[in-house]
């Protein structure tokens, strides 16, 4: 079993770094409420050192061939896979998510990103554009410089890798700040990248809360900020980045719709609803938390859903039989419990769960509300916990209008056997990441991200390259230059 205590609180310029004068940050294991490690927030001097190291290392890193950069990233991917169990245990201790999940969805997803962008690094090229008279323009795809990555607490290993891999593949360097709730995993990613041969200063990790993040975002040496977090934080970070005209990627919250038509395969639709509401105890940004079910199949859907929820195995997250774990923190559990109370108060019908589980740690039962209406608080606000809202509908046009009537636009899903309808509905969704007859798959090959208040830019896939590089065009004249005088 891995010892969760890190060597030190930060990883700067190729080595662990510590300054005990920073605010202490206890790491609480969500399954027991016990403190399992402690780090210190970065002092301004440490944050400055991290940016200085990234700034110094960037030109040399960008000057290496893409193939060489990619080789290091791919080596790190292999090392992550070899150490998957140890990294998954750490992710479980950091977040409380069941080992059954972390073994397949966290470090391995990070490795996928390093492997994919490592493979692309050598293939990044510009264009040649032929013009009249033999003139031509060529374009160079250039790195942005120092990028700041800021993470949420639900997928600490994955988020660090999803940001670092495309950034580094393009020749940027990065200072990454994990969420203060889960400060451990990104340090391991930094350690592995170093062991894989990454030059010092190319990937740095500084821990701390919002003020450390704000200091990084406001630094003039930073060219780009990529945030995974809530919409309110996104607004602040986007504004601060705009002041310095910095590039941004914003991966923010959602209240995504999932529409289940009367002709859907009900077992598959219920599987999608379970994955989209209860995986990671509901703490996933793209979750389909507004489940619109056609009235013809509503009662069948609800009774089978309740039956299947009854088979969930809630328990010690380190036991691989457990498939439903605690929430990340007491605070997050209380937020979800307040929403459950609001749901009851506003007249929704509780059909499963609704209570804190009778055990230590921050466990909340998988909860389902039926008869939810669009105006209820639980149907409008992101809960970020294991709370599913089931809403009724009868007509496609009506449900599409209701599905899109939200400031969010991260994800959306549809379950139907009618192919034409499936594609029509997917085209009509105001969302960046859509699913037909499935939910929440996020392969590295596919773009991931939101529209409207849910975000700006895309992670993963070739799209991410556009968000971590910029194009310079060079005009070449082959003849004389004509001037008016
Ligand atoms: N779209 C996605 O890919 C995605 C993925 C996971 C989580 N999320 C969203 O994240 C939220 C949950 O995560 P959270 O509670 O950690 O979010 P949060 O917004 O509270 O914090 C996110 C990060 O921002 C930092 N931060 C806070 N204030 C800051 C500031 N002023 N300047 C710079 N950094 C600052 C935090 O320290 C943390 O590291 C949910 O809304 C969820 O939907 C989105």
UniProtKB/TrEMBL annotation:
Top-rank taxon: Bacteria
PROSITE patterns assigned to the protein according to its UniProt record, in alphabetical order: ALDEHYDE_DEHYDR_CYS, ALDEHYDE_DEHYDR_GLU
Keyword Metal-binding: yes
Domain Aldehyde dehydrogenase span(s) in chain numbering: 18-474
Keywords associated with the record: Metal-binding, NAD, Oxidation, Oxidoreductase, Potassium
Entry annotation: catalytic residues: 251
Gene Ontology MF, one: betaine-aldehyde dehydrogenase (NAD+) activity
Pfam families (UniProt xref): Aldedh
Keyword NAD: yes
GO biological process terms held by the UniProt record: glycine betaine biosynthetic process from choline
Documented EC number(s): 1.2.1.8
Protein family: Belongs to the aldehyde dehydrogenase family.
NCBIfam families: BADH, PRK13252.1
Protein name per the record: Betaine-aldehyde dehydrogenase
């Amino acid at each position: 079993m891995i010892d969760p205590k890190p060597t030190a609180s930060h990883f700067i310029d190729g080595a662990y770094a510590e300054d005990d004068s920073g605010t202490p940050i206890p790491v609480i294991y969500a399954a027991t409420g016990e403190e399992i490690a402690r780090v210190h927030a970065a002092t301004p001097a440490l944050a400055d050192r991290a940016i200085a190291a990234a700034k110094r290392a960037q030109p040399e890193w960008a000057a290496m061939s893409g193939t060489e950069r990619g080789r290091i990233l791919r080596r790190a991917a292999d090392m992550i896979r070899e150490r998957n169990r140890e990294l998954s245990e750490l992710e479980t201790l950091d977040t409380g998510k069941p080992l059954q999940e972390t073994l397949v969805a966290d470090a391995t997803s990070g490795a996928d990103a390093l492997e994919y962008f490592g493979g692309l690094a050598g293939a990044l090229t510009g264009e040649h554009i032929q013009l009249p008279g033999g003139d031509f323009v060529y374009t160079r795809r250039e790195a942005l410089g120092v990028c700041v990555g800021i993470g949420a607490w639900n997928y600490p290993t994955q988020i660090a890798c999803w940001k670092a891999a495309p950034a580094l593949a393009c020749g940027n360097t990065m200072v990454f700040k994990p969420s203060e709730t889960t400060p451990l995993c990104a340090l391991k990613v930094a350690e592995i990248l170093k062991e894989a041969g990454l030059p010092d200063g190319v990937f740095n990790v500084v821990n701390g809360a919002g003020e450390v993040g704000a200091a990084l975002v406001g630094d003039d040496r930073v060219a780009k900020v990529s945030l995974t977090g809530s919409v309110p934080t996104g607004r602040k970070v986007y504004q601060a980045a705009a002041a310095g005209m910095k590039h941004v990627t914003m991966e923010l919250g959602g209240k995504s719709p999932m529409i289940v038509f009367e002709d859907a395969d009900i077992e598959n639709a219920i599987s999608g609803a379970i994955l989209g509401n209860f995986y990671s105890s509901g703490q996933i940004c793209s979750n389909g938390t507004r489940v619109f079910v056609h009235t013809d199949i509503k009662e069948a859907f609800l009774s089978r859903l309740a039956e299947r929820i009854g088979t969930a195995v809630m328990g010690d997250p380190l036991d691989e039989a457990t498939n439903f774990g605690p929430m990340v923190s007491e605070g997050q559990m209380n937020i979800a419990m307040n929403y459950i109370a609001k749901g009851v108060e506003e007249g929704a019908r509780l059909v499963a769960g609704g209570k804190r589980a009778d055990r230590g740690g921050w466990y909340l039962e998988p909860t389902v509300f039926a008869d939810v209406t669009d105006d209820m608080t639980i149907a409008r606000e992101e809960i970020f916990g294991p709370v599913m809202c089931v809403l009724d509908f009868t007509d496609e046009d009506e449900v599409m209008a209701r599905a899109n009537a939200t400031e969010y636009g991260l994800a959306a899903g549809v379950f139907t056997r009618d192919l034409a309808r499936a594609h029509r509905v997917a085209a009509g969704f105001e969302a960046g990441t859509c699913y037909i007859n499935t939910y929440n798959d996020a392969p590295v090959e596919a773009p991931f991200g939101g529209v409207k208040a849910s975000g700006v830019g895309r992670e993963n896939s070739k799209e991410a390259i556009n968000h971590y590089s910029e194009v310079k065009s060079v005009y070449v004249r082959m003849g004389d230059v004509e001037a008016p005088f």
